[in-house]
Amino acid sequence: MKDHPVWPLPPKYAEIAERSQSIGFGMPSDQATGGLLRCLVASKRGARVLELGTGTGLGASWLLDGMGVSSQLDSVELNDDYQKIARDLLSADPRITFYCEDGLGFLERTKDQTYDFIFADTWPGKYVGFSHSLRILRLGGMLVLDDMLPQPNWSADHPPKVERLLREIDALPRSHYTVAKLSWFTGHIIITKRE
Question: Does residue 3 belong to any structural domain of this protein?
Answer without folding.
Answer: no
